[in-house]
Amino acid sequence: MTAQHPYGQTTVPPATPPRRPRSTGRFLAIGLASIAVVLALVAVGLSWVAAGRAGDALDQVAALPTGPAPAPATTEPAADPTTETPVATEPAEDPATGSTEEPTLNPNTEFTSNYTSQTLRMPSKCNDDVYIDLDEPRVGSDYQRAELTYSRSCSASQGPQFTLSQGSRGSEVESTTVTPAECVDRIRTSPLLSGTNQPLKRGQVFCVNTSLSEATSTAQTWKMALLSVSAVGQDGAVTFKVSAWDIPR
Predict the structure, then answer these.
(1) DSSP secondary structure string, the chain?
(2) Could you tell me the superkingdom of the organism this chain comes from (predicted)?
(3) φ, ψ for residue 216, nearest 5 deg
């Protein structure tokens, strides 16, 4: 609005200065300051937690033993692949019993005399088996230990006879002067059949090789026997003369 000056001049009232807009900077500063305070508080809290954990770690370290650390476990060195594996050896042979494997007999075998000219008289009873062990020698031995089984029929048409037991071998020879080595050869070339009845008459001579397995099981020596029919009685009973040599094993 203009005013009329008394002297005819018109005066213009001074213009009202425009209103200054309200500043937002103050609020921004307050917000930033608040955030800084929060961050500072968080940092203080984290520092307190870290300090507590560090203290626990120090306590654990202090509780550890102070002795020397255990030595690391060592492993055995690997076996040399070129080393030969030990081979199990056979148990030593008992010298008292010897081997059950039959050795080879030949003219160079060294025989040792065990007994000579033993008389074996057979009983006169007929239809009865008599077992003869030539290792001792013995008449009437157990069946398992016998080299010969003697028998005589009660019939007049059938005379006395013997049978070689299983494991024994024999051969008929010409005289009582044969050597053990000659017996070995005759048994090899002209053997008697085991289990077959051999008729007997006076003057006959037989080489008999005893059973190795039976001699071993009874702690006897293995033998070569020379058996001769020295007499045949009126009743048919037979008398033998027998000598024997030990066979080395």
Answers:
(1) --EE-TTS-EEPPPPPPPPPPPPSHHHHHHHHHHHHHHHHHHHHHHHHHHHHHHHHHHHHHHHS--SPPPPPP--PPPPPTTSPPPPPPPPPPPTTT--SSPPPP-TT---EEEEEEEEEEPPS-SS--EEEETTTTEES--GGG-SEEEE--SSTTS--EEEEPTT-EEEEES-TT--HHHHHHHHHHSPPPTT--EE--TT-EEEEEPPHHHHHHTTPPPEEEEEEEEEE-TTS-EEEEEEEEEPP-
(2) Bacteria
(3) -70, -45
Cβ neighbours around 212 below 10 Å, total: 20
Residue 136: is it exposed, middle or buried by C-beta count within 10 angstroms (0-12/13-18/19+)?
A: middle
What is the number of domains present in the chain?
1
Is 9 part of a structural domain of the chain? Answer: no
Q: Write the pLDDT tens digit of every residue in 115-139.
A: 999 999 998 888 889 999 999 999 9
Contact (CB, 8 A) for 169 and 214: no
Per-residue pLDDT tens digits for 150-185: 999 888 778 899 999 989 999 999 999 999 999 999
Q: Structural domain of residue 164, as residue ranges?
A: 116-246
Note whether residue 64 is domain-resident.
Answer: no
